[in-house]
Amino acid sequence: MTSQSEGARSAFHELGMPDADELVVKSRLIRFVAEEVRRRELTQKDAGELLGLDQPNVSALMNEKLSRFSVQKLMAFVGRLGFKVSIHVEGSGVAFDVPYQEAA
User: Fold this and answer.
1) What is the pLDDT of residues 15-54, one digit of tens each?
2) Pfam families under this entry (predicted)?
3) 45 to each of 50, 73, 103, how far by Cα in Å?
């Protein structure tokens, strides 16, 4: 998750959106998934089968419609694309990773 303490403020933060941190995470995840689908040159039908989505939701994903998907769902898509997903926790002298989903 990008935080304001890292120095870079997102447009979501600049607009004062109360859920800016979540929107940053969703934006990074959805962009990654959409770019990976494009990189693999998957049709919407093939992407839908791989990700478990119908065509309207594949279209929403490819058009980066953030409101259609939760962070959890987007992390699941990353896993279905064959990537490992984990949550990194850090602060006050503590750092650890929590595996969220193993690669499919």
Assistant:
1) 887 888 889 999 999 999 999 999 999 999 999 999 999 9
2) HTH_37
3) 9, 19, 21
